[in-house]
Amino acid sequence: MPRPLTLLLAAPLLLSAGGAALAADQKVTVVSAGSEQAIKLGKTVISRPFGAELVDHLSVVGSYTLRDARLHLIRGKSGVECPARYAVIVARPGQEPVVTESFGTCSAAARPQLRRGVFTVAMPATATGGPLVRYHYANGRMHAPAAALTQGAGTIGAAAPLASVCRSANAIDPADQAQALDTFERDWPKAYRRAGTLKRVQLGQSEMRRLVTDLACMSSWPIGERRVPELATPLFRSQRHREAAFAALESIQRDPDTEANLKAVARSFSAEMRYRIALDPPL
Questions:
Q1: Tell me: the pLDDT tens digits for 199-243?
Q2: Distance CA 211, CA 35 (A)
């Protein structure tokens, strides 16, 4: 998957990088990046590690060595709707760091553990408590207890709770909205700007869901009402990806663990993209 997309799905915007020759044991800290916080790993500054899920405060929960990788668990705190989200920065020698897709149940009481070569993060099922839900790291991702998405015949159904959130425009400073959208557009991969080049792009189910989540959320901001649908049109016109893209939006709307605002913006964004595709149908 092209690196810029991972800004939104599983990896960050690199504001300042020291190249690919990165050591896995570099120190990870929280630093200021303008009006926001960022994560600094060695000489690399990772801005917005949670993509469009804007957070008010970042913290490093802990660092763990797993075979050839160094895993850094980070937490992002936001509003009362979802007090905490988590992600893992994966650092390997000779490679740029990668950030996993965000995960969690909105609980701030995460319990990380590295045992017998397996890294897990357990936490209560909700922000207010409940039975433990355990996520485990494998193949560069944090996996929920069951498959997050299942796909068949062009449809995607929800399974394990993802606790996806989208903060409304009223809860985000306009300057932060503008900065986030400018970064989003700047790092949008060239291959995604044309339906023709999208034929050669492979997108997994979780990547597609995270991508359309960010698109739908940003399209609900006043500054993104036109810019985001225009940017997303080639993806939704693509013969290879359009069914999966619309199916991912449908799965967000059906998922009982998705908060109300994200369901609403996913429904609105889906309608907007279907309208655009109807006006300019795929060849």
A1: 888 777 777 888 898 899 999 999 999 999 999 999 999 999 999
A2: 25
Model confidence at 165, in pLDDT bands (50, 70, 90)? low
Q: Which residues contact 75 (CB under 8 A, 6 or more apart)?
A: 58, 59, 60, 61, 84, 85, 86, 108, 110
8 A C-beta contact, residue 47 and residue 17: no
CA distance 202 to 9: 14
In DSSP terms, which residues pair with 47 in a beta bridge?
13, 38
Give the closest residue to 188 by CA, choosing from 231, 249, 240: 231
User: Mean pLDDT over residues 151-174, rounded?
Assistant: 54
pTM: 0.50
**DSSP letter for each residue of 25-68:** T--EEEEEETTEEEEEETTEEEE-TTTTS--SEEEEEEEEEETT
The predicted pLDDT at position 186 comes to: 82
pLDDT given at position 282: 65
- Provide DSSP, the chain: --GGGGGTTT--EEEE---S---TT--EEEEEETTEEEEEETTEEEE-TTTTS--SEEEEEEEEEETTEEEEEEEEE--SSS-EEEEEEEE-TTS--EEPPPB--S-S--EEEEETTEEEEEEEEETTEEEEEEEEEETTEEE-SS-SEEEETTEEEE-S--------GGGS-HHHHHHHHHHHHHTS-GGGSSHHHHTT----HHHHHHHHHHHHHHHTSGGGTTHHHHHHHHHHH-TTTHHHHHHHHHHHHH-TTS-HHHHHHHHHHHHHHHHHHHHS---
Instruction: Report phi then psi at 168, rounded to 5.
Output: -70, 160
